């Protein structure tokens, strides 16, 4: 579907959520549908950020930027983005602190503050070439920054069989991170 194409064009770790059913409207991802799509259709870099956000109700700067621009690329408006981030962050902080410390940066990402730049989602090479995440950070490409064991665990969350997982792992071991990600998407959506 066009929605899956959009997800794959905008380019860990499982988390416990209640079961969610497939969205009915396939033209646009809604905030309520993010949990569903994050499980199998988000690329691992975004799934990891989304999972960390859901578990910790916070992401550091580069994680917010990487995931925020991805959501923007999926078609979320600035108001939807603020609602999304606020719904997670305000599980740990109050609304005033969110408005003071985070809402400006979201509006800035959408070109509504500061230099009024219209920032685009990061492409795979930008994600791959990010500085390795430090303690408590989750940005970047898991195929590049995770150990083989952690990548194998991550790949397992996409429902692949052993031979399919090995195809993905072989590409990771060859440092073909984009190819590994593409194969993971293809194999989990056949």
From TrEMBL:
The keyword Iron-sulfur applies. InterPro entries: DNA_primase_C (IPR058560), DNA_primase_lsu_euk/arc (IPR007238). It comes from the Eukaryota. One of its GO terms (cellular component) is alpha DNA polymerase:primase complex. Keywords: 4Fe-4S, DNA replication, Iron, Iron-sulfur, Metal-binding, Primosome. GO terms for biological process: DNA replication initiation; DNA replication, synthesis of primer. Residues 38-190 form the DNA primase large subunit C-terminal domain. GO terms for molecular function: 4 iron, 4 sulfur cluster binding; metal ion binding. Its cofactor is [4Fe-4S] cluster. The keyword Ribonucleoprotein does not apply. This is DNA primase large subunit C-terminal domain-containing protein. The lineage of its organism: Eukaryota, Sar, Alveolata, Ciliophora, Intramacronucleata.
């Amino acid at each position: 579907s066009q929605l899956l194409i959009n997800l794959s064009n905008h380019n860990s770790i499982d988390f416990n959520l209640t079961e969610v059913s497939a969205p009915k409207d396939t033209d646009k991802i809604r905030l309520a549908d993010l949990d569903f799509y994050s499980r199998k259709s988000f690329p691992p870099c975004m799934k990891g950020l989304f999972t960390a956000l859901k578990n910790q109700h916070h992401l550091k700067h580069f994680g917010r930027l990487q995931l925020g621009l991805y959501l923007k690329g999926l078609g979320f408006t600035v108001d939807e983005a603020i609602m999304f981030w606020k719904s997670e962050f305000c599980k740990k902080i109050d609304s005033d602190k969110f408005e003071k410390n985070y809402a400006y940066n979201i509006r800035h990402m959408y070109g509504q503050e500061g230099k009024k730049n219209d920032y685009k989602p990061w492409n795979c090479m930008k994600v791959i070439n990010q500085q390795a995440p430090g303690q408590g950070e989750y940005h970047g490409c898991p195929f590049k920054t995770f150990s083989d064991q952690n990548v194998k665990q991550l790949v397992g969350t996409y429902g692949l069989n052993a031979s399919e997982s090995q195809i993905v792992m072989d590409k990771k071991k060859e440092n073909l991170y984009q190819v590994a990600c593409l194969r993971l998407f293809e194999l989990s959506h056949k």
